[in-house]
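Consider the following assembly input.
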Amino acid sequence: MKNILFLLLTLGLVACTSSENVQNKPEQPANIIFLIGDGMGLSAVSTGFYYGEQPSVFTRFQHIGLQQTSSAKQKVTDSAASGTALATGTKTYNGAIGIDTTLTPHQSIAELTASLGWSTGVVATSTISHATPASFYAHVEQRGMEEEIAAQLLSSEIDFFAGGGLARFIARADSANLLPVAAEKGFLVDTTKLAAAGTLEADQKYGFLLAQGGMPPMIQGRGDFLPDATSLAIGHLSQNQDGFFLMVEGSQIDWAGHANSTEYMVGEMLDFEKVIAAALDYAEKDGNTLVVVTADHETGGFTLGALHNEETGALNYAEIGPVFATGGHSATLIPVFVYGPGAHKFTGIYQNTEIFHKMAALAKGE
Ligand code: MG
Ligand code: ZN
């Protein structure tokens, strides 16, 4: 009996010690996948619950927070200021890319993780030089300087990019052709199609520019470009044993909001849900990948109201009739969905800049 008691005490002690060790070990994801639905407010997130297959991919998250998106100068942000906040942890003025209100450049999470030896990638359905992806690799005074931003992409630490915006590289005001420059910088650039999965070489940098401007909307036949590019990026970047950072943007959720089009919005959201599913599937299998899903701001004042009968004025609570309150952005709080090592640190309500600081601390094992 004494022996059994001794054994139980010993086991208990061992169990306590090992659980303490687990708690003291810093949470440090090997990889971070950052998914940004541009203009994706809570009603956009909710569309899948009514227009998509059930259960919505968002139900796979246990750790959820809220972030405030206002920029340094304006209560209602644009995608440059909020992209810069998310990418660099710095509030700035609307229009700024990767710099603060004094025009000082700030290191982005892509640049920071690259300095740790991680591979990095950006994927978008806009031009790849658009405000959101640009915030991760460029530093310019105005988002409209897309030709300068495209040049900075090729000189940056980014190892993989996919999206639209070929015209920013080959049909420029300065008449320069950046495709030979891309080759000099070590990129293999394809302007016709994504590569097949598993065909990309570990030590090679890749670029895919598949439209002159933005990629087509889902309702005009974009197909599986975004989930396919996401899987291709993950497959390629994960060949680096030291880790990877990948940012994927559902760029056109915002454009659907500006267009006040429910059909456009639902198409973009269901596509973005496939991207989230691909990231979560990888993270669950890998076991050491942090997935952060959020938006830069809400667009359209989009609401899932009860269906409004135009003739009688009656509201039909049995059906949804989405409405938009604005053709621009709104200042509503934005949800943050997180999975993986350190996910619990993203619960609560905080400024958009905190998302960078949380990701940076986790990447550094702090
Ligand atoms: Mg954007
Ligand atoms: Zn917008």
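The domain at 48-159+244-363 is CATH 3.40.720.10 (Alkaline Phosphatase, subunit A). Ask yourself how this observation constrains the way the partners meet.
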